[in-house]
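request received
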Amino acid sequence: MQHSGPLHEDENFMSQLQDCANQLVEKLQSDNYDEASELIHQLVEARNNHIFKSVGQLTRALHNAIMNFHVDANLDADPPNINNSEIRDASDRLHYVIEMTQAAADKTMDKVEAVAPIAMNLGLESANLKDEWQKLRRREMTKEEFKALYERIDDFLEQMGDGTAVLNTNLQEIILEQGYQDLTGQVLKKVIGLISDVEKELVNLMRIAGQVEEVTGLASASKTPVTENTNKRDSAAEGPQIHADKRADVVSGQDEVDDLLSSLGF
Amino acid sequence: MKILIVDDFSTMRRIIKNLLRDLGFTNTHEADDGSTALPMLKSGDFDFLVTDWNMPGMSGIDLLKEVRADGKLASLPVLMVTAEAKRDQIIEAAQAGVNGYVVKPFTAQVLKEKIDKIFERVEG
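response:
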């Protein structure tokens, strides 16, 4: 993108305008109407040329921006039919993030649900055995009860070995499953990069469009303030707050929710 | 106790379902937005509704309003579990007659507290 070119042309155009205007005043004062109208004609021509050039630049920049984002679109269709673009690609990537995080959450919960009963049963059995063991230590146990305890301890040790093996395997798998953070993080970074590129291209287009507006004498867009959409319903969902601690209209945790509700009589 | 869990993310429904099971509530059913939840509520003698706010189709706040406007469901206890954290939204939910409001991410402890509190008040 050339930044000096258009500005330089602008200066040329301005000085041309001033020269013409001065000469025009002179000619008019000396009642030289033929030459004066010739000057007016030149003025209009210069202005038109400048507008054509600026519009040309704007069109080229727009074209470049579209090429940069690899938009493959059928512009003859109405509305234009977009076959492929980096934005479309970014949407696919974000869908992939949703799918991956969902799969990771599901797998993690599967693993936990599979071993939770094992941990619970081992806990229950060890509590039972502890009671029996205390009975044995207090020498309150009959020979038959001791025989039963003897076998139960055998079983328990076996269960313990098998159970902890499964627990370990599942815990390891849960850790491995956290790899989704790395993968989704990379995808998200790419999308963030694309968004900042789009922003840069938009700012550039606005800059060039501003120059066109200046020469044509149209009102500059910057003079019309960007109005925020104040009609937005309060109840419109926003999703998770990213900067809750920096916003006064947002609570930053359950404690603040509770405070707010109790102030309302809850 | 028959409970309906409404959330568009199956992961979140599953988390809430697991937490409720730990608290001793095993009769749980699921819906993925307000418009599928409402007919279930109308036909299904539920005792408790846990709903998200932000869902496609009918949102949780609209579901809450529908529930309060329905003669048969008007007194159903409703707990909102949501990432929506604007003060105005919490006030709106309170005014619409929510019984409890939990912001995500939440802990098992917080969910238990809110549920206990709701039933204390309903029974008391």
